[in-house]
């Protein structure tokens, strides 16, 4: 609950901070207005940490640059065409933008850039009322023409103007509604949700890269499942990630199985909890969270209703990995993220065979080898994938995974498992077999790696004997 007295005190502290105070005085001395705007004001009122400072002013870009230069250790004007000048002042990065009064053509997201004359008009063109507040400096004075404070108190997301107009100007704001709902724990107003549902098809004018950026920001929040539910319920997610709503499989009275959609959101929440527990203080792991959300997307395509009343999803891990690769490529994710997510999806079922009976050391080695650098994420995803309400079963699976992690640690200590290599390298293989570089060297290398995985360290002499014997069988 927002405490206004405490919130106003925090605004006062923000205005008095060295960066804000020095910029406020400089602009006032030069005869211009200046205000901290948007997220920093909202977060100060809510008592949340703010990383970047955004300002708005009636000064034009050339004037901004002239005023900022004496105060800045660095400055850049890459956004000059849009009225934005960036700078580093007293060690903090700031952006200062001329008041805007843009118009949109409804065909693209690119506005016709028009500078405005008043702070109030600038604020009314912003996405949500809670982001449409400003703190005039050096005053200081809170400016809130759209009722953002009231919406902060109510925990409501509203647009400063009719949401149909706001989303018509910039359809990406519909995605931001879901992101801010997750980030702030707020509820979009009914008219906002209705507008998203009605205008969702307009998202097609937004580039995949921008959609990906908002999806990443949503997944970085503490409760992304809250935003995902909004995207699913309004149908907006159908435009860029239809595999998620497809998880809502129909369940009839004769063929029972888990609600895959709800299960996936639970796995996402549990993965986030484990991520924080195992890596405290680390940045949100978007790759892990994507894998948790998408790990079962292969189930709808592989579902089979069995005669006895059960339901099977054979090879949904492999199918899901392929589907995820295609979708993430369409959203322009980078190659490393795509590879990691698809690998995690494809391997997320591997552990469950261990719970049915202890693996040999060679099986554990293979598990680690196949996971490679994704091992820690695979640990988290596999543990998070246990959502059964059967406490005995959940305890048994947790105990089994505790055991496999213990064995991995022991083998790693004994054999430096993470850096496992055959005992003979490629050059030595060529010398022993008298062959040139080529595919046969790779086949021999893989044979020796299997020996190492199955039997551990046997020594170079024994490895050479085994290699010669293997090579003789090929003659």
Notable characteristics:
single chain, about 475 residues, alpha+beta, Beta Polymerase, domain 2, Hydrophobic Seed Protein, Hypothetical protein af1432, 4 domains, two-stranded parallel sheet, 23 helices, 11 strands, RNA binding, ATP-binding, EC 2.7.7.72, PolyA_RNA-bd
List the helices and strands and how they pair.
Elements: H1 4-16, H2 18-29, E1 34-37, H3 39-46, E2 53-57, H4 61-68, E3 72-76, E4 84-89, E5 92-98, H5 119-124, E6 134-137, E7 141-143, H6 148-154, E8 156-157, H7 163-169, H8 172-184, E9 187-188, H9 190-199, H10 208-219, H11 224-234, H12 260-278, H13 286-294, H14 299-302, E10 304-305, E11 311-312, H15 316-330, H16 335-347, H17 352-356, H18 361-371, H19 375-384, H20 391-415, H21 426-433, H22 439-455, H23 460-472
Parallel strand pairs: 2-5, 8-9
Antiparallel strand pairs: 1-2, 1-6, 3-4, 4-5, 6-7, 10-11
Helix pairs in contact: 1-3, 7-9, 8-10, 8-11, 12-13, 12-19, 13-16, 15-16, 18-20, 18-22, 22-23
Pfam families: HD, PolyA_pol, PolyA_pol_RNAbd
EC number: 2.7.7.72
Protein name: CCA tRNA nucleotidyltransferase
Report on this model:
- InterPro entries: HD/PDEase_dom, HD_domain, HDIG_dom, NT_sf, PolA_pol_head_dom, PolyA_RNA-bd, tRNA_adenylyltransferase, tRNA_CCA-adding_enzyme.
- The chain has 475 residues and is an alpha+beta fold.
- It has 4 domains: 1-152, Beta Polymerase, domain 2, CATH 3.30.460; 155-240, Hydrophobic Seed Protein (Orthogonal Bundle); 253-419, Hypothetical protein af1432; 426-472, no CATH class.
- 54% of the residues lie in helices and 9% in strands.
- It has helices spanning 4-16, 18-29, 39-46, 61-68, 119-124, 148-154, 163-169, 172-184, 190-199, 208-219, 224-234, 260-278, 286-294, 299-302, 316-330, 335-347, 352-356, 361-371, 375-384, 391-415, 426-433, 439-455, 460-472; strands at 34-37, 53-57, 72-76, 84-89, 92-98, 134-137, 141-143, 156-157, 187-188, 304-305, 311-312.
- A hairpin with a 3-residue loop joins strand 6 and strand 7 (141-143).
């Amino acid at each position: 609950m927002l405490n206004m007295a405490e919130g106003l005190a925090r605004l006062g502290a923000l205005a008095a901070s060295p960066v804000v105070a020095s910029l406020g005085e400089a602009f006032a001395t030069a005869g211009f207005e200046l205000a901290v705007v948007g997220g920093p004001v909202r977060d100060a009122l809510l008592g949340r940490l703010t990383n970047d400072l955004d300002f708005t002013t009636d000064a034009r870009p050339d004037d901004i640059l002239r005023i900022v230069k004496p105060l800045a250790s660095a400055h850049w004007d890459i956004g000059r065409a849009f009225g934005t000048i960036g700078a580093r002042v007293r060690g903090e990065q700031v952006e200062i933008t001329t008041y805007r009064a843009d118009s949109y053509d409804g065909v693209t997201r690119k506005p016709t850039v028009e500078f405005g004359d008043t702070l109030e008009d600038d604020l009314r063109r912003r996405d949500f009322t809670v982001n449409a507040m400003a703190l005039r400096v050096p005053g200081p004075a809170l400016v809130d023409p759209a009722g953002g404070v009231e919406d902060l108190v109510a925990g409501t997301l509203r647009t400063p103007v009719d949401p149909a107009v706001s989303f018509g100007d910039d359809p990406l704001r519909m995605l931001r509604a879901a992101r801010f709902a997750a980030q702030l724990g707020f509820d979009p107003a009914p008219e906002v949700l209705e507008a998203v549902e009605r205008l969702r098809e307009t998202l097609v004018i937004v580039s995949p890269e921008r959609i990906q950026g908002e999806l990443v920001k949503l997944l970085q929040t503490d409760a992304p499942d809250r935003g995902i539910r909004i995207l699913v319920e309004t149908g907006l997610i159908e435009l860029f990630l239809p595999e998620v709503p497809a998880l809502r499989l129909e369940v009839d009275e004769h063929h029972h199985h888990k609600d895959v959609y709800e299960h996936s959101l639970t796995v996402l929440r549990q993965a986030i909890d484990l991520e924080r527990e195992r890596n405290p203080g680390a940045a949100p792991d978007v790759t892990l969270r994507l894998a948790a959300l998408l790990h079962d997307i292969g189930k709808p395509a592989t579902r089979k209703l069995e005669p006895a009343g059960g339901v099977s999803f054979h090879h949904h891990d492999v199918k899901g990995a392929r589907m995820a690769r295609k979708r993430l490529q369409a959203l322009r994710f980078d190659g490393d993220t795509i590879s990691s997510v698809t690998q995690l999806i494809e391997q997320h079922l591997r552990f469950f065979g261990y719970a049915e009976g202890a693996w040999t050391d060679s099986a554990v080695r293979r598990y680690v080898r196949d996971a490679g650098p994704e091992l820690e994420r695979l640990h988290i995803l596999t543990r998070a994938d246990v959502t059964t309400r059967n406490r005995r079963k959940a305890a048994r699976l947790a105990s089994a995974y505790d055991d496999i992690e213990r064995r991995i640690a022991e083998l790693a200590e004994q054999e430096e498992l993470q850096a496992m290599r055959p005992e003979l390298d490629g050059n030595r293989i060529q010398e022993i077999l008298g062959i040139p570089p080529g595919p046969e060297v790779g086949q021999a290398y893989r044979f020796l790696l299997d020996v190492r995985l199955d039997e551990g360290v046997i020594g170079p002499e024994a490895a050479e004997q085994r290699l010669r014997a293997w090579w003789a069988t090929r003659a």
